From TrEMBL:
Record's keyword annotation contains DNA-binding: no
The name this protein goes by in its record: GDP-mannose 4,6-dehydratase
Reactions catalysed, as given in the entry: GDP-alpha-D-mannose = GDP-4-dehydro-alpha-D-rhamnose + H2O
CC cofactor: NADP(+)
NCBIfam families: gmd
Native source organism of the sequence: Elstera cyanobacteriorum
Residues making up the signal peptide according to the UniProt record: none
Domain NAD(P)-binding per the UniProt entry, residue ranges: 7-337
Assigned keywords, A-Z: Lyase, NADP, Nodulation
InterPro entries documented for this protein: GDP_Man_deHydtase, NAD(P)-bd_dom, NAD(P)-bd_dom_sf
Protein family (similarity comment): Belongs to the NAD(P)-dependent epimerase/dehydratase family. GDP-mannose 4,6-dehydratase subfamily.
EC number(s) recorded for this UniProt protein: 4.2.1.47
Length: 356
C-alpha cells in the first residue's frame, strides 16, 4: 500500500500535537504548518520532530499562516496531501472579542483559502478535508443535548468565524463534490492544553498553590457548564471521520456536562484540598476548608461580553457510524492534568506570565 500523506495546520497546538503522533503511528507522512514566531513554538512536538537531514524523516514542518493564500496554495501543491486536517485557528473565545477581525481572517477566511487551494490545484477528488468545527457554534443553545441537527447560535466573534468555516466546508462538499467534513467537537483537554483555557489554568494554579509558588487562582464565570473530554480520544475521532465511505459531519462529545466550579473542586481534591464557597457574584470566594485561606477569587475581567452557559453533546452518530467512544472519564482527565502540572513545576517548569 502506498504511504498516505497528511497536512496538518495548527500542528503546534494541542490537537495538532496529538494528531501528528497518531498519524505517524499509523505510518503516514505528516506535513505540519507552523507560524514563524520570535520564540520557540514547537514545544508540544519537539519529541516527534525529526531532523530534516534524515533521509526517511516522516514529519516535516513548513512555515505558513492561514492569512496567506499564496503560502497555502504552495504548501498544498508541494505536499499533495491525501488528507488535510485544518486545525489552525485563533482558538481562544475571550481573545476573539479583542481581535475579532483577525479571528475572522484566520478562522473563517482561512478555511476558504485552503479549500480554494485544493480547488485551484485540481485536487478536489484526491484530497480529503477535515474542518475543526466546534460546540461554540451552538452558543445560545436551542436544544439539549446538542447533536448534528441542532440549530446554531454562536455567541462570540470566534463562534461566528467558525460558523463560516462550517458552512463553507459543507458548501464545497455540495458544490464541487469534495470529501470535506466538519468535526463538531466539544471541549477537549489534556496536559498540553493551552495555559489560558480554564481547565489548564486551574490545574496549573492547583499545582502552584500546592508547591507554595502561588496563593490564589482568579477566575470568571464559575457556573458555565462544559462537556469536557480528552484530546487523545478526539484526534482519533478526527481521523475516523476522514476514513468513511461518504463525507459527513459528526459531533464528538462525552455526553456529560460539568461546571467550572466542579472542575475547580475536583482539581483541588487531587491535592487533598476541599473547597468551601462563600459570598455571591463577584464577591464569591473559594476557601481551603482546612486552613480557611482564600484560594479562589473572582475577577470580573474574565467574564465574557456574551457567555455560552451550557454545552452537552450527543455523539450517538459518531458512536454508530465511526465506532467512536471517549475513553477517559472526567475524574481521570482532571487527575492526569493536575499530576502533569505538579511534575512540570517540580522539575523547574515556569508558571509563565499572562496566564488568563
Ligand atoms: P490551540 O490553540 O492549542 O492550537 C491552535 C493552532 O493554530 C496552533 O498551532 C497555532 O499556532 C495555530 N494558529 C493560530 N493562528 C494561526 C494562523 N493565523 N496561521 C497558522 N496557524 C495558526 O487549539 P487546539 O489544538 O485546542 O484546537 C485545534 C482546533 O480545534 C482549533 O481550530 C480550535 O478552534 C478547534 N477546536 C478546539 C476544541 C478544543 O476543545 N480544544 C474544541 C472544538 C474545536 P501557534 O502555536 O503558533 O499559536
Ligand atoms: P471555551 O473554553 O470558551 O469553552 O472554548 P475556555 O476554557 O476558555 O472557557 C470555558 C468556560 O470557562 C469559563 N471561565 C473561564 N475561562 C477562561 N479561559 N479563563 C477564566 O479565568 C475563566 N473563568 C471562567 C468561560 O467563561 C467559559 O464559560 C474552548 C476553546 O478550545 C475553543 O477553541 C473551542 O472551540 C471550545 O472550547 C469548544
Amino acid at each position: 500500500m502506498t504511504q498516505k500523506v497528511a497536512l496538518i495546520t495548527g500542528v503546534t497546538g494541542q490537537d495538532g500535537a496529538y494528531l501528528a503522533r497518531l498519524l505517524l503511528d499509523k505510518g503516514y507522512m505528516v506535513h505540519g504548518l507552523k507560524r514563524r514566531s520570535s520564540s520557540f513554538n514547537t514545544g508540544r512536538i519537539d519529541d516527534i520532530y525529526q531532523d530534516i537531514h534524515e533521509a526517511d524523516a516522516r514529519f516535516r514542518l513548513h512555515y505558513g499562516d492561514m492569512t496567506d493564500s499564496t503560502n497555502l496554495i504552495r504548501l498544498v501543491q508541494e505536499t499533495q496531501p491525501d488528507e488535510i486536517y485544518n486545525l489552525a485557528a485563533q482558538s481562544h473565545v475571550q481573545v476573539s472579542f479583542d481581535t475579532p477581525e483577525y479571528t475572522a481572517n484566520a478562522d473563517a477566511i482561512g478555511v476558504l483559502r485552503l479549500l480554494e487551494a485544493i480547488r485551484l490545484l485540481g485536487l478536489g477528488q484526491k484530497t480529503r478535508f477535515y474542518q475543526a468545527s466546534t460546540s461554540e457554534l451552538y452558543g445560545l443553545v436551542q436544544e439539549t443535548p446538542q447533536r448534528e441537527t441542532t440549530p446554531f447560535y454562536p455567541r462570540s466573534p470566534y463562534g461566528v468565524a467558525k460558523l463560516y468555516g462550517y458552512w463553507i466546508t459543507v458548501n464545497y462538499r455540495e458544490s464541487y463534490g469534495f470529501y470535506a467534513c466538519n468535526g463538531i467537537l466539544f471541549n477537549h483537554e489534556s496536559p498540553i492544553r493551552g495555559e489560558t483555557f480554564v481547565t489548564r489554568k486551574i490545574t496549573r494554579a492547583v499545582a502552584a498553590i500546592e508547591l507554595g509558588k502561588q496563593d490564589k487562582l482568579y477566575l470568571g464565570n464559575l457556573d458555565a457548564k462544559r462537556d469536557w473530554g480528552h484530546a487523545r480520544d478526539y484526534v482519533e475521532g478526527m481521523w475516523r471521520i476522514l476514513q468513511q465511505p461518504e463525507a459527513e459531519d459528526f459531533v464528538l462529545a462525552t455526553g456529560e456536562t460539568r461546571s467550572v466550579r466542579e472542575f475547580v473542586e475536583r482539581a483541588f481534591a487531587e491535592t487533598g484540598r476541599q473547597i468551601v464557597w462563600s459570598g455571591e457574584g463577584v464577591e464569591e470566594v473559594g476557601k481551603d476548608a482546612r486552613t480557611g485561606k482564600v484560594v479562589v477569587e473572582i475577577d470580573p475581567r474574565y467574564f465574557r461580553p456574551a457567555e455560552v452557559d451550557l454545552l452537552l453533546g450527543d455523539a450517538a452518530k459518531a458512536r454508530a457510524k465511526l465506532g467512536w467512544e471517549p475513553t477517559t472519564s472526567f475524574p481521570d482527565l482532571v487527575k492526569e492534568m493536575v499530576a502533569s502540572d505538579l511534575a512540570l513545576l517540580r522539575s523547574g517548569g515556569s508558571l509563565g506570565t499572562g496566564a488568563e
